[in-house]
Amino acid sequence: MTPRVQSSQVVARVGALLRAVGTKEPAGASTTELARTAGLARPTAHRLLTALAAEGLIDRDAGTGRWSLGPELYLLGAGAANRYDIVEQARDVVIGLARETGESAFLSARRGDETVCVFSEEGSFPVRSHVLHVGIRFPLGVASAGLAILSHLPDREIDDYFRRIELEPAWGVEHSEDAVRARLAATRTTGYAVNPALIVEGSWGIGAAVFDRSGTPAWALSLTGVETRFRPDRQHQLGTLLLEKAHVLSGRLQTGRR
Question: What SUPFAM superfamilies would the database entry show (predicted)?
Answer without folding.
Answer: GAF domain-like (SSF55781), Winged helix' DNA-binding domain (SSF46785)
